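Class, discuss our next protein.
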Amino acid sequence: MILDKYKTIIFDCDGVVLDSNRVKTDAFYKTVLPYGEESAKVFVDYHQSNGGVSRYEKFKYFLEEIVSQELEGYRYDDLLGIYASEVLAGMLKCQVAPGLKELREKTAHTNWLIASGGDQKELNKIFTNRELLDLFDGGVFGSPDTKEFIFERELASHNIRTPALFLGDSKYDYLSAQTVEGIDFIFLSDWTEVCDWEKWAKENKISCIPRIGCILN
């Protein structure tokens, strides 16, 4: 794979840099379980069908569309707090993508960014703790800003320089990359929770690799 042409490489976090998709799915389930097992299962299905969308939007959807009445102690802000605690514990322990640091060495000429649906403050804390922050010289960005907004803002400030490459593992990642010119997209399949990714990728003629380390081959 020719990487020399890219001036910026943008990474999603969950399922790309960290093997954290299952961490977040489990956290969503546990957080809303007081509303009942059936509601929790419906919410997990919604979450997995909308990978890359922020927790802020997902919990709003849960309270507005899945359940009819809020429970004391499990309202919007409560759910965000419970979920954040669950996620932080899991993301401090989950696997980092093999080959990440080797790729950084081979692409020293490029600017690296994170554009994630995860909470931006939380991501910076996790990346600092796991000694990954210095790899991403262009910054670690996340919600409440959307990926589309992050792309537009960082392009306008010339922090994202084109041609750029975005590595993601969700349909939303692909659609986000399509909103701006000059950003190519590659789908990473090993840790994705997109159940029909092979059919979807083929229909949309999307380049796919299993994991970050495969770019080095």
In short: The longest strand covers residues 111-119. Residues 34 and 74 are 8 Å apart (CA to CA). The mean pLDDT is 95. Strands lie at 8-11, 111-119, 140-143, 164-168, 183-188, 207-209.
